[in-house]
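As promised in the previous annual report, we have extended the structural survey to additional targets. Below is the entry for Lipoprotein.
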Amino acid sequence: MHEWINSLLAISLVAVLSGCQFPDDPNQTLNKIRKTHRLKAGVCLNHTASSDEMALLKTLAKHLNAEVIWFSDPQDVLYRRLQDYKIDIVACAIHQDSPWSEILAFTVPYDKNDHAAYVLAVPPGENAWLKQVNEFIEKQRTIQHAARD
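The corresponding structure token record, generated without further manual editing, is:
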């Protein structure tokens, strides 16, 4: 009897999960960028975005066949905009261990030094978008390593 119930549960779980699209973007961030050809990117008003960060965002936009729409505000304002899904990504020399990582989604590090690992922030729960950005960062890292060799 227990084996039958366990089998039924396993089959039900497979059926339910096969209908899921994972990773998913509940607010359709990646689809909106692809559809509108616009990447809404925030840079900190009180922090001059490094040329590396700006170049990374421009290259990401090009990769997505999109233009960058820039927003320049204080970091906390940009983070609230991310939470409200008003912008798509933020670059502000964000440290990987920032307490905001519990509220927002952080990418894999795009840069590291002896003191910190730097990440980009994207809206929370937008897993397809986060996956896309992470894969892009990894690809850029591979290109940079190949260029050095």
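Strands lie at 38-44, 67-73, 89-95, 105-106, 111-112, 117-122. Residues 6-10, 12-19 have pLDDT under 50 and may be disordered. These points will be discussed at the next consortium meeting with the crystallography subgroup.
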